Amino acid sequence: MNKYIKTLFLAVLIGFTACSDEFLTVEPTSSQEAGGDATEGAILSNLGSAYQILLFDSYADFQYNSVTFMSDLLSDDVYKGGGSAGDQQVLYNMSQYNLNGDLTAGGLWNIYYAGLSRCNGVILACENAVGVDEDKLNQFKAEARFLRAYYVHWLWKFWGNIPYFEEELEAPYFAPQFTADQIYAELIEDVNFAIEGDKLPLQTSAVDDGRASKAAAMMLKARIVMYQKDQSKYAEVLADMEEIYNSGEFQLADYASIWDRAGEFGSGSIFEANHLAEGKDWDAAWTGYGTNLPTFISPNELTGTDLLSGSTEYQGGWGFGPARTEIVDIYEAGDTRLAASVNQFEAGTYTARFQNTGYFMAKYAAREEYNDAPYTADLNYENNVRIFRYSEALLNAAELIVVHGQAATSGLTAETCLDAVRTRAGVASIPATAENIKLERRREFFGEGMRYWDLVRWGDTALLNESIPEFSSERTWDETRKYFPIPQSEIDRTYGEFKLVQNPGY
């Protein structure tokens, strides 16, 4: 577990013990004077601070902010769960598409704006570098711009029309509000910079596990372009997926093995957030390396054995995120992904909580010996969050060929891609139709926060409307729900030419 990112953090002695209440003002992360000369050490200090944002989206800013979980809450895969509808009220309202300016994902907003600011700090330091090798400098710039695009793309997906800045801000620390399309253009500029010119290796070596790679930038570009439905760039994205496929750098690992400790940074991994079982505490809102997600989604007071996998390694948690009962039916007989994706425990071996279905998300579930933190164990599981996997590149390629009519240039076929994913799962070949490719994505990525964004970009949002009184879910999705309401507190503190405008429908 002594991976690159932790080594970098410790080497530069980053101590994020405080963060401003203002989302545009983040405390300095190195001893470099803003705008002054920057040594390689100062650049690495800033770069380490930028990477650490990856570790903050389960608990930071005194809130539970898992972007993976929040994304799944919006989908038709899981319910909110927990103690009651009012337990983490914002999450329940989120699942019902019923947020407002005073009840929105403010923690996620603050975390990713901190990420934007820290990435800007890296880029500024690179512009003022002294005595740094040019190849290293280009790599650092590419890493920072990849990370900036990654953080901003979440702000763009959730809020659309957002403040954006790339320079150091002066008091009163306001930035102009961009439209969603303007943000898209900025994202493309950043990911293209990271991809072009071989500034980054296609895949990192073991010593650099956790760092950005060219393949990771390609995967991020694919998500951004396909969500924007920018047909003019589909051919570029397919070419990127072909390059990943033809490189031979990635293989599909046994599915169950992906999610345990030994599977971290495995052959099918393109980019992961490297969590470690240490450092987070309730009173320290911007510190540490662990994740709270396993505690959050595991059944309460668990004592039983998982009926699907037969495993006894799972531990109890808080009972959020129960899987919907219909999820088990999307998997065919013999599909090994079911037992790796869903846990089922016998009634009476855990405490049933709100919206209980008897099924839970397995990939990031709490496991024995994955948490030896000396304190605040609930916040400090070491489960890495898998952000980009090779199977996504394959299914992206299949979709681009079949659904969007793109022609592969290297002989790659949609059937080849779909067959590879299904063969690894232990199920037979099926035709590479649009319907089958969409369903395969749901099976492959259940519990990874992708289903909702797929439904929105496909225009399949009618599947999100429901009236299920027995599970306290009554919701209707329309285009005004595509974006969250901007936090009212942010609107209230801006004025003049920088006055934030609330998203339509709120």
Automatic annotation (TrEMBL):
Keywords: Cell outer membrane, Membrane, Signal
Domain SusD-like N-terminal: 92-224
Localization of this protein: Cell outer membrane
Domain RagB/SusD span(s) in chain numbering: 344-506
Main location: membrane
Signal peptide span: 1-20
Presence of the UniProt keyword Signal in the record: yes
Bilayer-crossing regions: none
Gene3D superfamilies cross-referenced by the UniProt entry: 1.25.40.390
UniProt key word Nucleotide-binding: no
PROSITE patterns (UniProt xref): PROKAR_LIPOPROTEIN (PS51257)
Family: Belongs to the SusD family.
Name the UniProt record assigns to this protein: RagB/SusD family nutrient uptake outer membrane protein
Organism, scientific name: Marinifilum caeruleilacunae
